[in-house]
Structure formats: structure tokens, C-alpha cells
Amino acid sequence: MHSNTKEQNIYLAPMEDVSDFPFRQVLLKLGKPDVFFTEFVNVNGFTSKKGGSHVLHRLEKAQEQEPIVVQFWGNNPEKFVESAKKVKEFNFQGIDINLGCPVKKVMKVGCGSALIGNYDVVGEIVKSLQDLSLDLPLSVKTRIGVERFDEQWIAFLLRLNLDSVFVHGRTVKQIFSGNADWDAIAEVVKLRDVLSPGTKIIGNGDIKSVKQAMEFKEKYCVDGVMIGREVMKNPWVFSGRIPEKKERIETLLFHMKEMKKFVERFPDKGWSSIKKFYHGYLREDEELTSLRNELFEKTSLEESIASIPRT
Ligand SMILES: Cc1cc2nc3c(=O)[nH]c(=O)nc-3n(C[C@H](O)[C@H](O)[C@H](O)COP(=O)(O)O)c2cc1C
Fold first, then answer.
1. Distance between CA atoms of 35 and 226, rounded to whole angstroms?
2. What residues are labeled active site?
3. Is 33 in contact with 10 (CB distance < 8 Å)?
4. Closest ligand 1 atom number to CA of residue 18
5. Residue 4 reports pLDDT greater than 80
């Protein structure tokens, strides 16, 4: 049986345009998870002739953001190997394989969730990465099944001798509907105890606070908990603090300035993804709500920064 009573093992979920460099800088200020994840990085893009320059922004990290795991997506084992070798000098603390993304453009090309049940390809990707002996933890992030909890799929993953398996407690069919099935996650833990006691199981889905994460860690016997969408709604989630109005505005301004510096270095990164956070920063007050509405109309980051009242 695993027990990590001393460590909380709270992870930031990989989320495209959310778990990016500028927001990770914000979390360093507000309260951070125990482990960061990058956004997912396509192995074909990263190893392409262009040299991956269009995805490089996803691999940018600061030393203070460590430990941080890089997540790759794709379905070509050779590209995974090439990417893993290429990423070695970036000094990540782990490599994760995306086996859970339900987005159409990813599934259509046989990747993400489309790999659930594709034992041959997934087995080959994992084995070829393990054969590299990179001395880095290797993990996968998956869903509980395609239409229902798929014990065979989970058992297959557990026999791969991975460092960790991250389990989002929804099926592929659910996409984001309904609730995450934490009882199914507890089943994964039971299977792990039998099949692969050395593999850590990290539960994911619908967690709204560190307090809830700790309760679920205990109740469902997982080794850690991953928090995703709640960070957009409440960037203070890892600290558990409730910010005052002044701090909300100042933090948004800091986030915008971090984004500005970042897009100047990486013009391939679109700045407007910061709009995903406006609801999280600017709420619970009429003045904040009207500032939010004003900001949604802005078409440049400079203009948006200029609209923020200096406190
Ligand atoms: C905007 C957005 C982007 C996401 N991008 C990724 C991704 O790049 N890789 C991945 O494995 N999961 C991705 N996810 C799924 C999350 O990592 C997480 O599994 C899911 O949101 C469930 O956790 P939550 O209920 O705490 O949000 C994304 C989710 C959202 C909402």
C-alpha cells in the first residue's frame, strides 16, 4: 500500500493555454502546486523540419517552476523517442504521455483519447521511451475508459511499469459532462495494489480546493491529486486564500505583464488566451464585473493593460 502522508502531492493539470509559462509565474506568487505540468506538446510539431519553433513556447520553463513534468501527445513511437531525446537538456522532472484528450482535432488523428484501447501503439511508445533509460519518471494521463470504466485498459497500463498513472475519472464519451467517478479511481488504486505496487496513482476530476484534495486523497487512497479547471476560476486555489479586490486587480495586471514579456519572446503564443482567466480574477463586485466586460472587448494586450486601474 502506498502512503505519502508527509507529501501532499498536489499537481497542476496540463491544460492548453492555461498551464502556460505566464500563468505558472502567477502561481509562484499566489501559491503553487507541488508539481507543475506543461501544456501538451505535439511530438510531430516538436520534431518537425521547422525545428519545433512554433511549439517551443510550450516547453519554456523557469527553474522556480520545478518540479515540472512535460506532457507529449502523438502516436508515433519514433517521434516520442526523438522528442524525449531533444527535451533532455530542458531539465524536466518527468515525461507524461497524453492518453486522454477528447478534443476532435486530436482524436481524429488517432491521438489522445483515441489511443485508449490501442494496446500495440501505446505499448510501443512506452517501451521505446523506457529503452532510452533517460532516468526520468515516465507517466501516462488517461481517462477511465471510452464508454465505461475499462478495467482491461487500466490493467494494461499498470503492467507497463510506469512511475505514475494520472486518472481523470471520466469516460471519453463524457468529455466534460457529468461528474468525475472517484469510485472508479479507487478501483484503479485497488488494481494497482495487485498489479504494480510501485506505480503511483494520481486522481483527477472536479477538485475545487486543496482541502477537498486532501480529503479525496485519504478517502480514495490515491497518491496524489491533480487540479485543473478550478485554477481558472480561482487562481488562489493552491493557497486557499480569498483575495481582496485590490489583490485581484494587481494579480491580473501582473499576469498580463508576464504574458506581454512572454509573447514578445515567443510571437507564436497568442496573448488572448489570458481572457480565460478574466472571470477568475474579476468577480464578486460590480466594479470588477464591469472592468471584466470592458476587457473582453479589447483587441490588444497593450490596450488591455492600459485599461487596468492602478491601485
Ligand atoms: C482548457 C483545457 C485544456 C486542457 N488541456 C489538456 C492537455 O493539454 N493535456 C491533458 O492531459 N489534459 C488537458 N485537459 C484536461 C485537464 O488536464 C483535466 O484532466 C480535466 O480538466 C479534469 O480535471 P478538472 O476537473 O480538475 O478540470 C485540459 C482541460 C481544459 C479545461
1. 9
2. 101
3. yes
4. 1
5. no
Residues 263 and 126 in one domain: no
- Same-domain status, 176 and 95: yes
Give residue 263's domain range.
245-307
CATH number at residue 202: 3.20.20.70
pLDDT per position as a tens digit, 166-204: 999 999 999 999 999 999 999 999 999 999 999 999 999
Nearest CA to ligand 1 atom 4: 15
- Which numbered atom of ligand 1 lies nearest the CA of 227? 26
Same domain? For 253 and 204 the reply is no
CA torsion 305-306-309-311 (nearest 10°) is 70
Dist. CA 121–CA 107, nearest whole Å: 14
Would residue 2 count as lying in a domain? no
Ligand 1 binding pocket includes 276 (Cβ within 6 Å):
no
Is residue 37 domain-resident? Answer: yes
Cβ–ligand 1 distance for 206 under 6 Å, the answer yes
- What mean pLDDT value characterizes the chain? 96
Q: Model's pTM, two decimal places?
A: 0.96
| Same domain assignment for residues 192 and 300 | no
Ligand 1 midpoint to CA 72 (Å): 14
Residue nearest to atom 22 of ligand 1 (CA): 205
